[in-house]
Amino acid sequence: MKQEQIKTLIDALAASDLAELEYSEDGSTLRLVKQSALAAVPTARRPAAAARKAPAAESVQQAPPPVAAAECLAPLYGVVHLQPAPGELPFVQPGQAVEAGQMLCVIEAMKMFNEVRADAAATVQAVLVHSGQEVEAGEPLFRFG
Description:
By secondary structure, the protein is an alpha+beta fold. The chain has helices spanning 3-15, 35-40, 48-60; strands spanning 20-25, 28-33, 71-73, 78-81, 97-98, 103-109, 112-117, 122-127, 134-135, 140-144. It has a 4-stranded antiparallel beta sheet, with no helix packed on it. A hairpin with a 2-residue loop joins strand 6 (103-109) and strand 7 (112-117).
């Protein structure tokens, strides 16, 4: 499996309601499980030596920094499309007021088109990406004012 393919699967799982995902190719199997699903499963008691090492390992997995409430972030890795088709007007432009649920852009990943919609009513202050640009999950797409 290629690293980009694995990253796409991780992003797809993160953007979905699934708790886990298993993918097999050419004799290799990749199984992804969301941390929230792991927290729900009770674990066996660890020996005292393992319990002493655990806090150091857990400190590495820190929560991501808080996101500014005035930004729309990419929900997954893919190619962003700011307009319905080439040559057409963009879904939104800077200075435009948007309603909650209004489409802002589309992110194409693995030949699937994922709509990105506004969480709340706001005014688009800036478009932080351009059509055709590859974006990472969590990358800011729009800033609202």
